[in-house]
Each structure stands twice: as C-alpha cells, then as structure tokens.
Amino acid sequence: MKEIKQNEFDQVVLKGGKVAVDFYSSECPPCEALAPKFENLAELYGEEVKFVKIFRQENRELAASLDVNGSPTVIFFDNGKLVGEKLTGGIKRSDLIKNLNAMIPDEKVKEITQNIKPTVSEYDTLILGGGPGGLTAGLYLCQARVNSVLVDTMLPGGQIATTHKISNYPGFIEPQPGFMLAHYMSEQTKICGAKYKVAVDVTKVDLENKIVVVDEYETLKAKKIILATGASPRYLNVPGEKEYKGNGISYCATCDAKYFHDKEVIVIGGGNTAIEEAEFISKFASKITIIHQFDKLQANMEAQEKAFANPKIHFIFDSEPRAFEKNGNKMFVTIEHVKTGEKNTLESDGVFVFVGMKPNTELFSDHLTLDDWGYVKTNEDMQTNIDGVYAVGDLRSKKYRQITTAVADGTIAAIAVTRELDN
Ligand SMILES: Cc1cc2nc3c(=O)[nH]c(=O)nc-3n(C[C@H](O)[C@H](O)[C@H](O)COP(=O)(O)OP(=O)(O)OC[C@H]3O[C@@H](n4cnc5c(N)ncnc54)[C@H](O)[C@@H]3O)c2cc1C
Hints:
FAD/NAD(P)-binding domain; five-stranded mixed β-sheet; 12 helices; globular
C-alpha cells in the first residue's frame, strides 16, 4: 500500500493499471473503521490491484476534481478510467471486495478467496449494536476493565445519528444535533478503550455458544453477549412502497427533508415521530399533508399543539394509504377513508412514512423469549432467557423507548455483566 500526494496521482493512479484509492481525513471515525479493512485487502489483492491512500485535507484540489467531497471515499481505476462504485461513509469489507472482484479475472478471485484465513478472537463481552444502549454498556464495561468488543453493521450512533436535534438528553442546555450526540457517545466509549468492529456484515449469531461471525471469516467469541441492535422503521407493505423506497418515499426526515425546499410532501403516521418530523420538514417544504389512520393524533400534546399551529401542516384523518405510484418527479398516493371506503389519489413531490418501529432481531430471535410484538423479554438486570445473554435499549420489551432509557438499560446490563464475570 502506498500513500501519495496529488502531484503523484497521474503517475501512480492514472498510469498505474488497476488501482483502489482511499481518500481519508484525520479525526474521522469512519476512516479509522475503514483503515484495517483496506490494509487487509491490500495484502490479499496486492498482486492484482494497487492500493493507494491520499490524505484528503492536504490534497483538496485533486479530491474536488474527482468529486470526492467526504471522507472516507474509495474509488477504483482501471487503466486511468474510473470503474465500479464510489464508496463513502461506513464502507463495508463486502462492498470493497465486490468492486475489487469486478476488476480481476474469476480464477484470480477464486485464488484470493482460498487465501483468506479465518480468524478467531476472544473477549469477555461482545456488544451487538452501537446505539446509545450498546455504547453505554461498552463505556461501563471498559471502565470496569472488562475486555469488550462492540459490533455494528453500520457506524456507531444508532437512531440518534440520523435524528436532527435532541433536546431531552440531560447535560446539554442547547438542543444537540443527533449526529453530534452520537459522535460524543461513540468517541467516549472508544477513547476509553473498547474495541470496535463497525460497518461489518454480521453473518452468524449463535447466542447459546456466544459466537458472532463478522464479514464471513472473523469469528468473535465471548463469555457474555449484550444485544443492543435497536429498532428500524416499519414498512406499510403497500403496492409501490418497495419500488419507490429511497426514490420518492423516505423514512428519514433528517436525511431527506432538505430535498423538498418549497415542495409539497405527504407524511404518513400520527405518532410522535410523524408529528415531530413533519414539524422539521416544514422548515423546507411549502405544504405538508399528514395522513393518519385514526380520527386523532397519537403524538404527545406539545407536539400536537405545535403541528396544529403550523400553517404549512394539513391533516387527513381516518385514512390509510393503499398504493404509491410515480410519474416523472411526482408521487401519487391513493388513500382510502377507513369508515366510508371512499378512495382518493393525492399528488405530492415526496412521501415520508413514520408508522412505528420494529425490533432488529432477525439474526437471533430463534431461541429468545419475545413479547407479542417481537421485542426481547428480560428481567430487571436485562438478562434474557438465554444464560449470559442480555438485551438493552429499543429491542427490549418495555414501555418507553428513549435515549435515556436505552442508556439506563446499557448501564444496568454492564454492571450486571461485570458482577457476574467477577464472580
Ligand atoms: C426520528 C427519531 C427521533 C428520535 N428522537 C428522540 C429524542 O429526541 N429523544 C430521545 O430520547 N429519543 C429519541 N428517539 C428514540 C431514540 O433514538 C432511541 O430510543 C434510541 O436510539 C435507542 O437506542 P438503542 O441503542 O436501543 O438502539 P438504536 O439507536 O436503534 O441503535 C441500534 C444499533 O444497532 C445496530 N444494528 C442493527 N442490527 C444489527 C445487527 N444485526 N448486528 C450488529 N448491529 C446491528 C444499528 O446499526 C444501530 O447502530 C428518536 C428516534 C427516531 C427514529
């Protein structure tokens, strides 16, 4: 692997045959997460593909000329031509491999795959999921000198990383951007010394034997496992939803509201998230129509009062979406009045869906005791029915799901685990 400056780019990259280039920055957690993966793949693919690193902050002109606007960004060249995907953010090993494999003959891919040596590492505790619950557990375990590893399929932070402002997390007088709070929590736990395996593919979870396999070849064994995989948005499962997900239909206002400046959008849902996010979207959009299945909103009174007082927000009650269609840039939502059966089609520039969450338990729900909604049952020490397995945060069966309650769960589980290990 070679580190180069922009004046070497022509020679080393454009005239260099097959090249993978990593634009990185300092003080960049996703760059740190990528570095060992890039290094490891350089060892495996080094005879076929050249691996190059460029420090983006000192080579800005080159980065800008290649439309590289964030760190890390990995791009691929073959004989001076850009090939494959531009990878950014929490870059997974599997995405790097997919692009590298596309650059070389199949028989070489086979050869390289045979050379991958599986690894096994052992820890006292493995935390699956790096949202507020998992990060807090990691912090307490680290401060108690428990050898822990935190595994996340994305970058740490969880749901708060994509929440625009958090005003109810104690200790901050001003509302905090969600990604900053996520950053503070993640850095505090990392600086303490917890090991991170983030932006990985989790390919196997065996709770009975306390084994988790990441990126197919890396086996992590532990004495205890803390499940902290949180929750994800629920889908409506209405025709057209899958087709237009990310292309007309969004589940994240923080991520997408900015694209609707002076546009009209439809928000589906009537709970806290729907109403708070509609309020946020109203900073950009000119009109928001909230479609709600009941005759009243479910959000808290404060959020409701704000929404009713917002002249940009309009409401259609007792109605459910039945189909999504798209024509050009316009979305068409067919809604049905649940009492009269009357159908109507509404036109908008975009749709946001906020109809609740579901626990992320797909990989390991088999032997766990769950409640009727699929959330993991625990005792008050956060212990599940499987010995040595704990569950914290939003995936746990409980009444209130907030950052503070996830953080509290993480604290309790970590203290309980530490005591058990000490005994
Ligand atoms: C739009 C929105 C606004 C919100 N606003 C607030 C607010 O203002 N105040 C408040 O207190 N709460 C708020 N919440 C709720 C709060 O974000 C959650 O209660 C909290 O994040 C739960 O933390 P957690 O650690 O349980 O899970 P999460 O935050 O969901 O984190 C789970 C982590 O696990 C990872 N993961 C998932 N599956 C796997 C897997 N198989 N293997 C490994 N890792 C995995 C995910 O990538 C993620 O990083 C909001 C939520 C949303 C969606």
